[in-house]
Amino acid sequence: MAAVIFDLDGTLVDSAPDIHAALNLTLAEEAAPPLTLPQVVSFIGNGVPVLIERVMRARGEPADAARHKDLHDRFMRHYNADPATLTTLYPGVEACLRGLSASGWQIGLCTNKPQGPSREILGSFGLLELFAVVIGGDSLSVKKPDPAPLRAAAAAFAAGPVLYVGDSEVDAATAAAAGLPFALFTEGYRKTPAQDLPHQALFSHFDALPALLQGLARS
Ligand SMILES: O=C(O)COP(=O)(O)O
Ligand SMILES: [Mg+2]
């Protein structure tokens, strides 16, 4: 039985608009100027604590634990209140996931986003029940690119090939560290040229993914 584990932000979903909205609600509370969507996209990938560090750096603020906690907690209140309204599935994602499930693939999620909003986003699209395991940024004491979260997701599956699908430098590094074949989705939040990231396959639309996964599972 083959299994495929997916990253979430920038891979299955374009979640930046909701993250952007929650960050700007947080900044508006202190009459601070808003961030642009491209700025916020560039901050996503390493989980919420790093997202907030990057916001503070972009605003020229010095590192400060109390300030970081205040921004983090206020952001999470806004984000948890509304994580899915502006979030969209990338084209072909639903058909791809349902097709993989129907043809016997086991499916998992490994994301640096906390489990709560991750589950809520998948649930809002009616897709949560397709996932046999959900590992979020708060599931373990470490986040991707540490391989532990991906290994924890892979451990949910019985013997057989386990593949990973993601969009970013973090995902490529995590797959390499975990020793899993990696399919890179090229339309997400990546900042590095795809050819400079370790990967076993590339794809720009989810219609192409099932055939790629079949090939990787046989290799
Ligand atoms: O929450 C993030 O920073 C990114 O999450 P991801 O691991 O789903 O890309
Ligand atoms: Mg991602």
UniProtKB/TrEMBL annotation:
Origin: domain of life? Bacteria
Function, in words: Specifically catalyzes the dephosphorylation of 2-phosphoglycolate. Is involved in the dissimilation of the intracellular 2-phosphoglycolate formed during the DNA repair of 3'-phosphoglycolate ends, a major class of DNA lesions induced by oxidative stress.
Pathway where this protein functions: Organic acid metabolism; glycolate biosynthesis; glycolate from 2-phosphoglycolate: step 1/1
E.C. number(s) listed in UniProt: 3.1.3.18
For this record, the Gene Ontology CC terms, alphabetical, are: cytosol
Gene field: gph
Give the Gene3D superfamilies listed for this entry: HAD superfamily/HAD-like, Putative phosphatase, domain 2
Give the keywords, sorted: Carbohydrate metabolism, Hydrolase, Magnesium, Metal-binding
Q: Which residues form the active site?
A: 7 (nucleophile)
Recorded protein name is: Phosphoglycolate phosphatase
Give GO MF terms, alphabetically: metal ion binding; phosphoglycolate phosphatase activity
Q: One GO biological process from the UniProt record? A: carbohydrate metabolic process
